[in-house]
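About this split. The held-out portion is used to measure sequence recovery: a designer receives only the structure tokens and must propose an amino acid at every position. Recovery is the fraction of positions where the proposal matches the reference. Here is one held-out target exactly as it appears in the evaluation file.
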């Protein structure tokens, strides 16, 4: 089992291709040689492999988000859920655990409203951007910190008043053993009286409707934005759909404009496991949790009627 308290992270093979020559400090630093690397703007491509050493064992793991991380904060379609999570804090002294904290999109604003927040993510490239934000904000580690970790298999040695996994992180768990691991870790880290909030998107019209959409439009543009004067876009290639597992397998293609042409920078292949409203509630209850509240979105939509499925539950 991965224990981030006992781990050391080495950015063992980090290469960088930059289209602008701009650089800024990146916390890709070896614990042994104190060598810093650099991360650039969203126009850069960062390729990382990370060596994680723990329990006397070293493993090399690929970071599938190494190139796509630079695009994450540019996405204008992510729902503005930060006020929602802030409103769920039981007190200003509450301790929070964020699973899949990524670039710190939710972690940083929540840190200003709670006692402390701890984030884990399995992508070194996403965490590098989170570290940059924490450093820029002057956030002390006693207030906010983020570390490399697997949200289905971790031990932190403490409990939290609130556990969250914002913006559909739960849907990345493709297999039942992964789902088992997440709920086991949630139970082990939830303080007495604490709650957890999970979110998935609502497949409105049912799975058959989703499958028909995927068959008729095999590639669609999800968003386009201009950042620092550079036009960026994300297209979704609808690779396949597993009707038995109710899982989509999109390929997210990130591009930047060079003149009139779109240049492909990164392709992110992910699973997206789907849940109907009643099925999402049933999964949570099957693991012995009690549902406290539920919403259909972050603007107060009724559960089952909005674009999201958001469920708060306790042990």
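Reference sequence for scoring:
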């Amino acid at each position: 089992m991965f224990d981030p308290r006992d781990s050391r992270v080495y950015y063992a093979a980090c290469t960088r291709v930059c289209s602008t020559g701009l650089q800024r400090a990146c916390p890709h630093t070896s614990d042994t040689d104190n060598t810093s690397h650099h991360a650039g703007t969203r126009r850069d491509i960062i390729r990382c492999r990370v060596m994680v050493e723990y329990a006397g064992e070293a493993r090399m793991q690929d970071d599938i988000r190494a190139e796509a991380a630079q695009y994450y904060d540019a996405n204008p379609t992510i729902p503005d859920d930060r006020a929602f999570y802030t409103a769920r804090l039981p007190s200003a002294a509450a301790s929070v655990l964020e699973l899949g904290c990524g670039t710190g999109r939710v972690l940083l604003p929540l840190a200003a409203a709670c006692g402390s927040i701890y984030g884990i993510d399995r992508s070194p490239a996403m965490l590098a951007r989170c570290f940059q934000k924490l450093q820029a904000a002057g956030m002390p580690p006693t207030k906010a910190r983020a570390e490399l970790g697997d949200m289905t298999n971790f031990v932190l040695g403490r409990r939290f008043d609130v556990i969250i996994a914002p913006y559909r992180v739960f849907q990345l768990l493709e297999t039942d053993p992964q789902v088992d691991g997440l709920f086991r870790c949630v139970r082990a880290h939830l303080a007495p009286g604490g709650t957890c909030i999970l979110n998935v998107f609502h497949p409105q019209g049912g799975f058959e409707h989703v499958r028909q959409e995927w068959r008729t439009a095999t590639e669609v543009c999800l968003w386009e934005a201009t950042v620092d004067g550079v036009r960026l876009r994300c297209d979704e290639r609808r690779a396949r759909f597993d009707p038995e597992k109710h899982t989509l397998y999109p390929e997210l293609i990130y591009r930047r404009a060079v003149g009139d042409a779109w240049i492909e920078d990164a392709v992110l292949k992910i699973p997206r496991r789907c849940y109907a409203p009643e099925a999402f509630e049933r999964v949570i209850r099957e693991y012995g949790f009690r549902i406290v509240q539920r919403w259909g979105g972050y603007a107060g939509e009724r559960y089952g009627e909005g674009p999201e499925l958001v469920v708060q539950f306790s042990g």
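Annotator remark: The chain has two domains: 4-72, 74-315.
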